[in-house]
Design brief:
single chain, about 40% helix, 8-stranded mixed β-sheet, alpha/beta
């Protein structure tokens, strides 16, 4: 069964569109899937199917400025509104509340990839007590953002250019991602070794990477990363919350494993229990490698099953 749902965004401007996928069997839990920067939730359909087969309801939406939400709110591609860096996190909480009304009293999990992992980390600092567990995938520790770049973003917004898009910001922030990728043809080789995945990602009309992101949204993106750094963030996360932290060890977002362990160490140093797994020889989208995606999904399902019992 598939439900299409919608709700008002925290930005008070957009209507967010999402989907609730329901297995044919009696569900044993719910997992909310949170997609990353410049993409949309249908890129995770393989993983969604695996969760359904394992007996989990799956909830997912397209963030403001992304996917169907951007299509149905004309003129908002790459523009997340004016309510700040917690907008997407609060939208994910709105989706959770909606799904819990539809299917109450089931263990509730989050899975967030890349920017989705940043959103999930922001979520668990505020609403972690509402969850049975969380998987963060392809996450980052302290992200290399220069003071000069931050100042440039702030000045653009302060000068009234927040809704405009300066393409150089994305290049300055993310342009180094392909430093270990060898030959560069599309500029997104850092996501996966497979040229088919690269081409599909680059050509997908629902991927906001095909359009520049607004200056204010770029500033909010950096702000989102800043609020989930260090033990100050980790101390806000409920100690009892089970956490599964996964990535590829050739993923530049996680500094090739260093940033992934940095996040786990922040949590461990504040009393949390974290299971950390790096997949050797894989880049950012570990869930899109043909030879690995089933293993990745199985690991997440095993993590959730161990909690559901």
């Amino acid at each position: 069964m598939l439900h299409e749902v919608s709700f008002k965004s925290f930005n008070e401007r957009d209507t967010v569109y999402g989907w609730v996928y329901v297995p044919a069997c009696k569900p044993k839990g719910i997992v909310q899937l949170i997609h990353g920067f410049g993409e949309h939730s249908r890129r995770y359909f393989h993983m969604i199917v695996r969760y359904l087969e394992a007996g989990y309801i799956v909830a997912a939406d397209d963030h403001v400025g992304h996917g169907k939400t951007a299509v149905e709110n004309p003129g908002t591609w790459g523009n997340w509104g004016e309510k700040g860096c917690h907008t997407m996190m609060e939208d994910e909480h709105s989706l959770k509340k909606l799904v819990c009304k539809m299917y109450p009293n089931l263990p509730y999990f989050l899975f967030g990839h890349s920017m989705g992992s940043f959103i999930a980390r922001d979520f668990i600092a505020k609403y972690g007590s509402e969850l049975a567990g969380v998987t963060i995938c392809g996450t980052a520790g302290q992200f290399p953002v220069s003071d000069e770049l931050m100042k440039k973003m702030e000045d653009l917004v302060a000068s009234g250019k927040g809704d405009e898009a300066d393409p150089s910001l994305g290049g300055d922030l993310l342009g180094w991602m392909c430093e270990r990728c060898g030959e560069i043809k599309l500029g997104n080789e850092w996501i996966c070794h497979n040229p088919y995945v690269q081409q599909d990602h680059a050509a997908d009309p629902f991927d906001a990477f095909t359009k520049p992101t607004a200056n204010r949204s770029m500033l909010d993106f950096v702000g989102m990363m800043k609020v989930i750094e260090g033990t100050e963030w980790a101390e806000k996360v409920p100690v009892a919350l089970p956490i599964y932290n996964i990535a590829g060890d050739e993923d530049p977002v996680g500094k090739y494993g260093e940033g992934v362990y940095q996040v786990s160490n922040w949590l461990i140093s504040t009393g949390h229990s974290v299971k950390t797994k790096l997949y050797s020889g894989y880049r950012h989208e570990i869930h899109n490698y043909a030879d690995l995606k089933d293993q990745v999904s199985d690991g997440i399902i095993a993590f959730m099953d161990s909690i559901v019992g």
